[in-house]
Amino acid sequence: MHLTDATWTDVRDADADLAVLPVGSTEQHGPHAPLGTDALHAETVAEAGAARYDGEVAVAPTVPVGVAEEHRDFAGTLWVSPDTFRSYVRDVIGSLAHHGMDRVVVVNGHGGNVPALGEVTATVSRHDDAYAVPFTWFEAVGDHGSEMGHGGPLETALLRATHPELVREDRIEAAREGASETWGDWVSGTRTNLAHDTAEFTDSGVVGDPGGGDADLGDELLDLAAASLDRLLTAVADRDLTAER
Amino acid sequence: MHLTDATWTDVRDADADLAVLPVGSTEQHGPHAPLGTDALHAETVAEAGAARYDGEVAVAPTVPVGVAEEHRDFAGTLWVSPDTFRSYVRDVIGSLAHHGMDRVVVVNGHGGNVPALGEVTATVSRHDDAYAVPFTWFEAVGDHGSEMGHGGPLETALLRATHPELVREDRIEAAREGASETWGDWVSGTRTNLAHDTAEFTDSGVVGDPGGGDADLGDELLDLAAASLDRLLTAVADRDLTAER
Amino acid sequence: MHLTDATWTDVRDADADLAVLPVGSTEQHGPHAPLGTDALHAETVAEAGAARYDGEVAVAPTVPVGVAEEHRDFAGTLWVSPDTFRSYVRDVIGSLAHHGMDRVVVVNGHGGNVPALGEVTATVSRHDDAYAVPFTWFEAVGDHGSEMGHGGPLETALLRATHPELVREDRIEAAREGASETWGDWVSGTRTNLAHDTAEFTDSGVVGDPGGGDADLGDELLDLAAASLDRLLTAVADRDLTAER
Amino acid sequence: MHLTDATWTDVRDADADLAVLPVGSTEQHGPHAPLGTDALHAETVAEAGAARYDGEVAVAPTVPVGVAEEHRDFAGTLWVSPDTFRSYVRDVIGSLAHHGMDRVVVVNGHGGNVPALGEVTATVSRHDDAYAVPFTWFEAVGDHGSEMGHGGPLETALLRATHPELVREDRIEAAREGASETWGDWVSGTRTNLAHDTAEFTDSGVVGDPGGGDADLGDELLDLAAASLDRLLTAVADRDLTAER
Amino acid sequence: MHLTDATWTDVRDADADLAVLPVGSTEQHGPHAPLGTDALHAETVAEAGAARYDGEVAVAPTVPVGVAEEHRDFAGTLWVSPDTFRSYVRDVIGSLAHHGMDRVVVVNGHGGNVPALGEVTATVSRHDDAYAVPFTWFEAVGDHGSEMGHGGPLETALLRATHPELVREDRIEAAREGASETWGDWVSGTRTNLAHDTAEFTDSGVVGDPGGGDADLGDELLDLAAASLDRLLTAVADRDLTAER
Amino acid sequence: MHLTDATWTDVRDADADLAVLPVGSTEQHGPHAPLGTDALHAETVAEAGAARYDGEVAVAPTVPVGVAEEHRDFAGTLWVSPDTFRSYVRDVIGSLAHHGMDRVVVVNGHGGNVPALGEVTATVSRHDDAYAVPFTWFEAVGDHGSEMGHGGPLETALLRATHPELVREDRIEAAREGASETWGDWVSGTRTNLAHDTAEFTDSGVVGDPGGGDADLGDELLDLAAASLDRLLTAVADRDLTAER
Known about the structure:
6 copies of one chain form a homohexamer. The first copy, chain A, has one domain (8-236): Rossmann fold.
């Protein structure tokens, strides 16, 4: 059940207590991939996971802009402050819970959202009338996760599988040439990244090889992520929340 | 240029200073129309207006949830607080302006957003590095505007024209029966509405006759709204902003 | 019962559950009318309405400064941010309700306060221990409302009836000459006003003809507004609030 | 020049850089004195001081409700949170400064406002485009200050001089009987008051003897306070603010 | 019981309902005394008072930075905004209360914290699940309090008694020469201090004579303060809080 | 240079532009280790790193309470909200920068602070007049990091080396028995932890074997962490910040 398409009477009759809330980002993904990559992927995975789950899950509309100021040097990147993002997600979860959909998995497509989502789902679970956990798709695709990068093999492969018309194949070479191999500017032996902004370490905005994954890999990633989300939804649905409240 | 589909290099090369930001709501629209009606309409009109405008306009991704707590008694209605909504819109406009798209028309599909949008566009224009104004599509369709209602003839007609599969025609009668003729619970001679929530005056969530407009009317409404938005974009592009800053 | 003049034992003994809270603005009203026009009018109407009402109503002290940054280009105009204004009104209503005066009509004299008052009265009614609605006097004077303007026929007439010493009759001509006929700078067919500040469309700060209404009209306006407020107070006192809470 | 009565052209022509902002409270002052005592006194003293000062001073409208939750157990007491109060005062000073009235003395009538005013005037002076200091009238009447109390000899005497009709002389005895001799519930040798609310130590709301001062004393207090304010205005007008900014 | 040193099982077994929270400042205290003077003194007094009290008292870790922007012109002075300081103290008290330590004395070493602590302890006591009061050590040492100054005889004497290695005795003369005799820049007959920052009235940062108190005086001050705190803890432990909640 | 011990003239004369700010937590670390473990460790490592660095570094006082609500079920655990924590750290960094110490390494001892520190150091670096990065000691000790746990081998070993009197060796067995092997309650194949609070997965509060590391390991860890911090300080001192601002 997609809330965008459902009527209020549909929701009333479905009587779900489980929802997924896709959250993306609209931010640079290199010269070859669209700004909307993270939002598109979050939505795709959320729908696939909900479809696979054996039970009713409401799919909320996708939050399109997240915590992405780190990409501000690349044109078209949109962002809201972490405070604003947390408030937006918290309020939406609050209104889902108002209608009884008080077990919410936030399906995330953007690494920069991870800390804020960890915080806001904990806050909601401890202090509001809902239980929420985050799920970031590229952390739930098995060993592939280690090759994530940015606008790199994984994200580009998933686009090739789901939105091939949005991949500018003729710019892959340019994307690759300006790419960084790794994310950040690290001091050896610490986990401290000196670069707060991505333009400090990548010229094209890309990290990793955008040519490193085809549509078949994309299909596999989607399958893996959907299966993981299915397991998570089952666990959330079954969880005893007595101790949380 | 849709930012969701464009790459950062596309935005850089387009060098636009004009953007539209569609803002909707995900809220009850009666038993016959989807919760996403306002977001869908805002997006449709924004795209149509931008297409008609003779010049480059960036179309930002649609903000899907707005100020709609008034519908909280109807299942599936989502909302954020007015403060959260203003912060989200302000931050998104700020990031658009960061890239030079500092003349922004917020294209709105929901009456409940109007006061918050008036406030935030004034704040942005006076205190931030952007100029912004709101545009609400159903206030820009000539005399038709007077029949707006809620989930009534206009909104349903526009859905019939653009998303007919989302209109449950077999529930129109139920929608009509539980509908209110007018919005609110007014004290005679004042403009004070005693009802803060819509459930106080409508049973089906509808105001007006959802059968009162067909797809042809929908086409006409879209044409009128797009023409109005085109005129507004022209005026905003031409405006001397020296005095604003 | 005016709270400013009453003692705490008077309030305790009166045991009212109904209050009016006048809110004004201190802002330019042309060269002929005082900055305090809106606060004075709100207070006058609140007192007249409370006097006409058949029952006990507490009249709270007038909030003198509101949402008026739009007039910032005219000397002496004072304002607070919309957030500050909402907080101030919300807190005052909260303390009224603490003493049992939990049905509150906010009597408003300034158009710029209308959106913020709509928001804060809804917030209070939904989330605090009070029920509140706004009432703007010039929206409650029948057909006269259409001639409102700013520092124009209605406001000046009411001053002539209640505070004639504050009208500079010898400057009416100057006020008229620099006046605008209508409020705002509109794009045809939209309800979008391009001008966030009033100095963009009026030189004297006035909209409408300040000579267009004499003291007799002022008396009539006060009578109409007081009668409307009386009806509203009756409706608020009688309202079943079970569903609001 | 009272801003409430002046027109914008008056303010423009006066070209003052000095303003006084009266701030009161609407709170219990015993069974004999009105809730508005502090606001009335702040306004009276502000006007008297401005009149005595040899130069142009704008008198802003009085902020009627302050930080007074400590009196919440007495009916009719109004309050806003300290945060709200600081925001309101800060914003008003900001708008005064916008017009060049950037040296502001906040004339205060309520002890409970003192800490918040100390904070907000420092904040304004360090971080905004204005210089502000607080002035509390009963701290500026020489040795009389030590007898302040609450609703006691000083405040009642000043009312007798300026608003005799608001003193319920027939309730003085009741006020006295329920009064406390001193403010608070102190632990010996500390300056720690265990009582956050006044109802913990006074039954009538009064501290001190409300019969202890007649109208002559009131006249003397007003004269002393006005003279002190005059000296302060002179010092503020003459102050070199280079180092503050 | 010092919370820093105790384990969670120690706290569980101690079952205390009383806690002291030392709050200091890290700010200039002249050329002869360390920036940490106020934090050190708050901690010393808190420990001494808790040791003297006949019962279990948890000693929380010291909040090291407070409201001290007034000293910003002197190198090394640290500060947080009053809002931040109140939030930090309020949250810490809230977590103490979560474990049943819901009677809290905030032991303060810095005059600039006094208004903020008065406000936050009242807020906590009225609106949270705890009772809290402030205690400032140099206001609880009998007649000595009148000689407080800043980096003057009292604070330096207490350092000589407790941390003699931190007093630069060879700079006492320099400290004295640049010192002010009194705090602030006052307008005669008012209690208005025109100087928001200390650099406006003291060159060395000192007020009073830093040579005016030896270690014996320091011992006496500590003894007096500890005895006062002991009395306060007894009063707080015995207080009936029914009326507060 | 420790700011707590230094005088303002010392700071002025040192003219440092580099500072370390230790931030801890006061929270359960099992029945054998003190609540202050994280604050103590942060301070120890900050001092050791600053001592090893070849140049002037100011050591700010330790922020004792952080983001630790996850341990709320264990007595004595203190916490502030993430918002409060970020504000406190941001304000302190702001005051360091005011004096020219505008390159700040936040030395952290608590995993729960990591997301908030990532956010606030980015905010400060992008929007304030300082550059800041976080450093978490147990992420900078080479391969040992993988055995971190909570109150486990690493933290206990470091305590044995630096504060042996605070380790309750006779409770190690109890700590071990109630310990969890791993942190959290994970859904297979996702990185989603279902447990927002630690009491959901550990009975003693411990994760890992608290007997698994002796004082020699503690010395090694301190040496490794100090060396890492030294390298980071060098990198921060040398960094070209032109692009950050």
